[in-house]
């Protein structure tokens, strides 16, 4: 069984690695110092289990768990943390177990034994039951499945969300990705960072440069760093003007 260990403290990672090394049929295939590194390492190494801390910089364990659950073959998640107040949130993201530090060998062995009984297909079936808003707090990253695997886009880099039938195009500083979410859910989660300019578009407030009237008569929005513009629907023009006055 392949294990990935994620903790922002080197000593904590070293201890978990030593415990795993004493167990037969289990090996540590990668280590990570935060949730972002864990997601990237999981994409490369395809571990069966991730031992995950919760409070970490850049991306915490809960957000990383939500991202990993979107993988085509999600690993089993076992949280290893010094804080017991996150237990309910951990099981909301379908964690297999929740171990308090200092993690004992017996507890870890029992948790890994339970993980061994789950097939990847079973873990994928559980992940598919997760709601769209998997993390207990607002995400800092948007996760998308691409031909390169699971990609993470920082929310602060997103220029706009554009709905097109079933999928949402996420335009960001490095290009664009497609996600299977709804504008309604994105607006509910990021409503203070983005503004609705059309029934199919949410735009990042930080990147709005100006609004102008096009020769065809409709209004369009210019965004900093982008050559393309977005159409502003009539019903949103007045509200957008008010928002821009506050920027």
Automatic annotation (TrEMBL):
Residues 2-116 form the Response regulatory domain. Keywords: DNA-binding, Phosphoprotein, Two-component regulatory system. Pfam families: LytTR, Response_reg. Transmembrane segments: none annotated. Residues 142-246 form the HTH LytTR-type domain. The keyword DNA-binding applies. The modification 4-aspartylphosphate is found at residue 53. GO terms for molecular function: DNA binding. It comes from the Bacteria. This is LytTR family DNA-binding domain-containing protein.
